[in-house]
# Entry
Amino acid sequence: MNASLNFEWISELASWAAQVSMEAVVPAVIVLLVSRSRLIPAKWCAILAVILLVRLIFPFSIPVSWRAPVPTLSPSPIEAALPVDFEVSGQAPEGTAVLPWVWALGTGSVLSWLLISQGVIRRRISEGQPAEPRLQTLLNECAVREGINSIPPPVSVLGLETVAVFGWWNPKLLIPHGLADKHDDAELRGIFRHELQHLKRHDTLWTWLGLLACAVHWFNPLVWLLFR
# Structure
């Protein structure tokens, strides 16, 4: 009984993911083409992509129809007299019953990869050190220019390739170890102001929504392109 209910639940989610993914193909192609041709500013392309990605992870829809309702015809006397015990079987075609499990396996794999990656980053943060005073001073200057009152604590992390904002609820600014030795003050200000812009726009939240959409629709390459 439980196995049957679990399969039905997974099958419904997989069917919903496939249907929504197919519905998003044309809008996704349009957004990607517009973004590539630069017909509108990149900001608006990003907003359109976010709207599509959000739609892909929330199981709701607004029914819209431009067609008049089709009148329901009463059955003819001959149809009414026919027996009704020949109902069409609800069984799926042979070989398709495994597809929901394939979808679940793919989604579970992407989610597991995300959780493992988060664990690795958190471990590196716990082993990190506060950024040197020079970097903190430059970061404070940039925060004043960007109008940000609450500055995430900068953490120097080993093995990091670039500066990044980590976390949404309690964000931290991750700084590669030795960054101050590779850039002058002007370059560092540019780097910090760029990351503070991500913080102001709550880009880490949108990133997580995009990653969740990629996990649910891992089979659709257009979703990954929208996320990028």
Summary: DSSP finds ten helices and four strands in the chain. Residues 99-127 form the longest helix (29 residues).
